[in-house]
Each structure stands twice: as C-alpha cells, then as structure tokens.
C-alpha cells in the first residue's frame, strides 16, 4: 500500500473522465475498494464545467484536497488530449496530475502528452491494481504541491503582520549580525533591538534565528 | 542500336567533297584536251594529205611537161637537121622550111646563114606576125651568134639562151634560137638558125585540159618569168619546177596549179572529219553537263537520305516496314530500342520475336488477314490499333500501331509501313488509377467484414474490462474486510453478472449480423458472379502477363449465395493465385484457371488454380489460421475469412498442391449450395432459403 496522505490536506478525490459508463463505474468501484473517493464524468465538457463551478473565483484556493484526473484519450466531442491542453493552459497540472487511458492506436499521442507534462498513461486493457497504484502516486504529488502552497501562504501571512522596523531588524538578523551591530546600523538602542527581535520571532512563530533563516530561504525575496 | 542501324545507312561516299570535285574536273579537262589535240591533228593531217596529193600531181605534171617539151624540141631539131641538106636557095628548102613552120606552131622563123654569119635566106612562120618587125634581126642576133659559135665548135646543134623580142605595141615575146651548123667535108658552110617561141612551146607541152588547170611558165634562175601559158594564173601554192636540158641551154619549166591552198570547208573529207569532231565535242559537252547534273542530283539525294536517316533516328516512334509477304524489311533504331531486339534479329522475319509466344498464332492470323486484303485502302487503318508486344526480356507491353501502305516509285503497293508507339507507360498510369479504384472498391466491400470485427472487439472489451475491475476490487476488499464489505461485494457481483449478460448480448448481435447477411442471399448464375470479378482479376493479371482461363460448365450453374461475400472470396483467391505466380515463374506458364462445375445435385464447386511454386505441407497446415500470412503487408485474414464465408453458406473450402494431374501450382476449391431447378423453386415454400441457416 502507498504511504498515507497527510490527513490535514483533506480527502483526496480522483476524477474519472470516460464516455463509457460501465468502465467508469467499474473503475470507481475499484477505487472505492482501495478507500479512494472518485467522481465520474461522461465527457470532457462535463468535467470542465464542474471544475469551473467548483473553483469559483479563487484560483489559488483550489483544490482544497489532493486530486488527480484519469482521462480517456478517445471520447466523443472534446477528446482527452484537448482537455489536457486546456488544463495545462489554466495552470492546473501541478496540483492535478493527469493519467491517460489509451487504446491500442493512441500510444504515440499519449507519449507526447506525457512529454508535455501529463503524469502518465496506462494502456487499455489495464491491470486494475497497478492503475490504482499510479493514481495514488499522482495523488501524492498533488498532496506535495498542496503542502508547498500552504507553507507559502502561511509565510506570506506572517510577513504581512510585521512592521517596517521589525522587517529591517529581521533582515539584519537573518544576515547574522549581532544585536549591538544592528542597533548601530539602525540608530536605535540595543534594548529596542532586542524587543523587535523577540516580536519578530513571535510573529513568525520561530524560536531561533536559524529557524527564521530556514523559513525565509524557501520564499522568494 | 547504332551498330544495327549503320547497316541500313545509305552508301554515301565517305570522301570529302572538294577533292572529289577537283579530281573530276581534272579528268574532264584532260579528256577535253586530248580530244582537241586528236581532232586538230586529224584535221591537219587530212589537209596535209590533200596538199601532198596536189603537190604530187603537179610534180608529175611538171616532169611530164618537161619530157614532152624536150622530145618536141628534139623532134624539131631532127627535122631541121634534115632540112639542112637542102640548099638554101632551092625551092626544096623553102618549101621544106615552110612545111616545118606550118607543122610546128612554136617555130617562128628559120634562117640560113653563111659561114661568115651573113644572112642568106630566111622565112617567117605564116601563122605569126613577122618576128623582127619592130626591131631588126641584126640587133637581136647576139645570142644566136654565140650559140652558132658553140655549134661550129662542137659540130652539133646548139640552143641559144632565150631572149626577148619586142613587138609593136609594147608587147613582145621570149624566144630561143636553135643553131645547126652546116658542115661538109670538114668545112664550115654556114648555119641554119631556127627561132622558137617559148610561149608557144609551152602551149603545146600539155594537153588542153591540163592547161586549164595549170599555169606553165619558163622561169630564169632568179624566178623571173620568161613566158607563160595556161588559162589562168597559178596560185603559187602547188608549184613544181623541172629542168629541160637542151644542148647549149637549159630551160626551167614551172608548173603552177590554179588550185589554191586546200580550204577546210569545201573539202569533203575534212568537212566530214570536222563535222564529226564538232558533233563529238557537242556530245561530250552534253555528256559533261549530264554528268554534272547527275552529280548534283546525287549530292542532293545523299543529303536527303542523310536528312531522312537523321529524322528516323531521332524519332521516338518506332517504324517498321513489311513487304507483301509479311517479312520485315526495315526497322528504325527507336523500334529496336522499344522491343530490345537488334535489327539483325528482326529483318526478314515473318513471325517476329517480339510477338508474345502465346499470342503469336493470333497475330499470324491477323497479319494474314491484312495481307489478304490486297487493296491497300481496305486494310490501312488511320485510327491505329492497340496490341501487345514482348520485349526481349519477356516483358509484355502495350503498343499503338498505325499502318499505312508502302508505295514504291511507280506507285505500286509493295508493303506496309507501321508507326509503333509504346503506350505501356500510359497504360501503367491508367492501370494504377484503376487499381486504386479497385482497391477502394475492395476496401468498401471488405468494410462490412472489418467493421464487424472492430465493432465486436470494442463491444466485448467494455464488459470484460468492467468485469475484471469488479473482480480486482472484490479481491482488494476481501484482503481487508470490514463491516461494509459484504454489501460492496454483493454490488460487485451484481455488476459482474450484468456485464457478463451484456457480453452475451454482443455475441448475440454478431449472430444477428450473420443472419442479416443470410437474408441477403439470392439465386444467381455463376457467370454473373464471375462477370463482376473478372475485370478486376484481368487487370491484375495483365500487369504480370498472366493469362486468365475461365471454364464454366454447361448449362451455367446457379448458386444461392450472398453475392458480395462470394465475390470477395473469388477476388481473394484469384489475387492470391496471381501473386503466387509473380516471382520466378516462366511468363508463358503464368495461367490462372477458374473453373466452375456442378459437382453434385446440391453443390456447385469453384476451382481457382495457379501455376506457381505451390504450397508445402507445413505451410498448408496453417493456411486457414487467422492472422497467419506470408506477405509482409498482409493482415492474414484473407483465407480464414474466405473459409468463414464459405462455411457460412454451408459449403467447404480446401486446396491441393500441386494441382492434381500436374507437378506444380495450387488449386483452391470451395463449394456453394446449388440453386434448385426452376420448377422445384416454384413449388417450394418461400422459406426454402432458411434451410441454409447454419
């Protein structure tokens, strides 16, 4: 079994997009037997519509939980490949890896899709449990992306709470200057520096200068 | 084929033109020169001969005249001698002298003188005026005296030198004296002197006719003329001198012909020679002109021939000429290149090697028919006709032939000229497009079968995939069972059952499809079936030069079948047969045989046989297996589908290799249900065809 996902991220969802109801239902049931939630869509259009309403105006907030999409390459109307292009354009791919289901003749198309950022493709007829394994891996990736985003958001929120003087003090602290030197630099007393420093640590929810530096290193300057 | 072509090149002289012309000019001028010299010589010789003859005549005449003169003078001398015996005073002398004077007209006077040169007696010729009338004798007797002195000395008659006696009126004549001494007993008694006229002597010296044609004259040593006689003056061209020796004096006699120098024209012989020469010259000139014209014509002809040759060689149209016996008399390089045979291999042949052996008999008949149509316009075909030739390599190719009668210079029909166009490239393009058409048609026909297969796989795939998913999921659940597991398993099994049922429905629909096609079965004559297929088969056969033989039983069998499907089977088998013969087999042996025969009351058997390499046992065992193929691009469904179709009709399919009764090839057989005879059909209930359901 794959490593369990961070429960704080919410319940993962697998989107199944296939025009064959029977196949979709059977796959959904199979996922359920592996304790995975799925939502099925009969066409690319229906799925796209669902995404638009679900995301609403807040692009950054979606998805709230790890997701992945399983697309059939061949579908009446919009094909799986076209749908994939649309997802890539909307910038959804990092958070929602895409796995293709391909028939005999579509392998080259699927390979080129993988080169352009699809997570994987699985040839029909597929081996059921290995497909589920790949889906779980895709969900892991989605989870990692969501985690990264959440950390980024936290950091931004905390930085926003700092005053100007606190930001100046924090920059110098992270650069490794002692309090005395910082006091000289800013033209304030060492005591004042110490107060600012303690407040920065408090707001940034860190306990040491090293921890603070680590937190800021991941962030863009 | 340059080597072959050169054989028929007209014999144009290889020599450069300039030296040839110069040489001819040299020959001609040499001939002219020689002719000129010879003719001139001939004329000159003729003229000279004429002149010589005239000269000889004159010479002879002169000799004759001189002899005549001499004898005449001597005769006169003798008679005068006889007269000396008479006394000068006697009448006898006088009459004798007179007699002499009368007889000899040349005698002008006879005198007697005494020893002291005194004149005794004289008598003048009565036929002439007195000689010394103008001038006295005494003044003119010096010559006579000198002669007499000599005569006395020698005691023999002596002639004096000639001298001129003037006459009254300014004229005069030259005379000569003859002095005879009179001696008796050694004593001089005087002389008898006779005076002779030279002019009269001359007049008697030659007969009258000669006198008319010649001038006679006595001349002195310096050429001064003393006396002359003759009708006309001589021309001084033919002239002969002769001396008349007389005692005491010598006279020079000259005969001068009145004939002038030989003139060219009036002279017959010369004229003849001259005329001939002129004629000859004219002839030679004409000949030269003719030769010149001929040479020009020859050059023009050579140029025309070269031009024609170049034209023929540059043609891409093949040219072939045949005589009335059908023998090939001419081929151009393009034709040789087209058929791949050298000209040597074609000329003189009646059954040329480019006739495909299997068609040679047919072509021979056609040629015989054309030759039988004696009148050219009956057989000439401006529209041309298409036929099949064979290259040396054995490859057949289509040609377009346009034939026209070949007429000689007199307009006689001597054979046939054919223009041959290679239309194989054009045919190939046509065939290609037709083949594409055929492929399209075949694809369309096969589409029903292919569609069925594709549909089947897709329709069965879905339920089977679903069943597999439910089964896997169930196993997952049972590995970690919890409270919800039985309910989920129940659902899964239900789904599995549903999907299995769905698969069953798919199978049933296939069955329905087959039934649908069965309902399309009709009763059809085998000839109609083959008619639909043969054009496509022949097309493919022609590409490889394969002959197609079709044999239908009599009466033509009728079968009950799904026409489209059976046509597919026939096409498939025929195509396989043709392809089997494509490689390595002798083109002449490439024969596709399609036979149809009613072998049983209820069955009609189709045979499709090739003459290819055959099928070995190992291959044969797998032949009808689906997806088995020997061709790279083949799907391997052909034969297995064929068998399926046949078996759906209730028939059977089989093959034999080699073909029974031969050593090679493969024969495929299949049976189809025969149509009931018309009467039985009418009696049977409408559902009869349902009996064919498998």
Describe the structure in your own words.
- The complex is a heterodimer of chains A (221) and B (694).
- Chain A is of the alpha/beta class.
- Chain A contains nine helices and five strands, in the order βαβαβαβαβααααα.
- Chain A folds into two domains: 7-154, Response regulator (Rossmann fold, 3-Layer(aba) Sandwich), CATH 3.40.50.2300; 162-217, Winged helix-like DNA-binding domain superfamily/Winged helix DNA-binding domain (Arc Repressor Mutant, subunit A), CATH 1.10.10.
- In chain A, 54% of the residues lie in helices and 11% in strands.
- In chain A, helix 6 crosses helix 8 (190-203) and helix 7 crosses helix 8.
- Chain A is elongated, with a radius of gyration of 24 Å.
- By secondary structure, chain B is of the alpha+beta class.
- Chain B folds into four domains: 53-257, Beta-Lactamase (2-Layer Sandwich); 315-422, PAS domain (Beta-Lactamase), CATH 3.30.450; 428-517, Signal transduction histidine kinase, dimerisation/phosphotransfer (DHp) domain (Helix Hairpins, Orthogonal Bundle), CATH 1.10.287.130; 522-692, Histidine kinase-like ATPase, C-terminal domain (Heat Shock Protein 90, 2-Layer Sandwich), CATH 3.30.565.
- Chain B has helices at 2-6, 17-84, 91-103, 142-154, 198-205, 208-213, 268-314, 333-339, 343-346, 360-372, 376-379, 424-479, 485-518, 526-544, 563-580, 617-622, 638-648, 678-683, and strands at 107-113, 119-124, 158-159, 163-166, 172-184, 187-197, 214-219, 225-229, 239-246, 249-257, 318-323, 328-331, 381-390, 396-407, 413-422, 522-525, 547-552, 558-561, 591-598, 603-609, 653-656, 667-673.
- In chain B, the strands form five sheets. In chain B, strands 1, 2, 3, 4, 5 and 6 form a six-stranded antiparallel sheet that branches. In chain B, strands 12-11-15-14-13 form a five-stranded antiparallel sheet.
- In chain B, a hairpin with a 2-residue loop joins strand 9 (239-246) and strand 10 (249-257).
- In chain B, helix 2 (17-84) packs antiparallel against helix 3, helix 12 packs antiparallel against helix 13 and helix 14 runs parallel beside helix 15 (563-580).
- The longest helix of chain B is centred in the N-terminal third of the chain and has 68 residues, at 17-84.
- Chain B is rod-shaped.
- Classes of the chains: A alpha/beta (221), B alpha+beta (694).
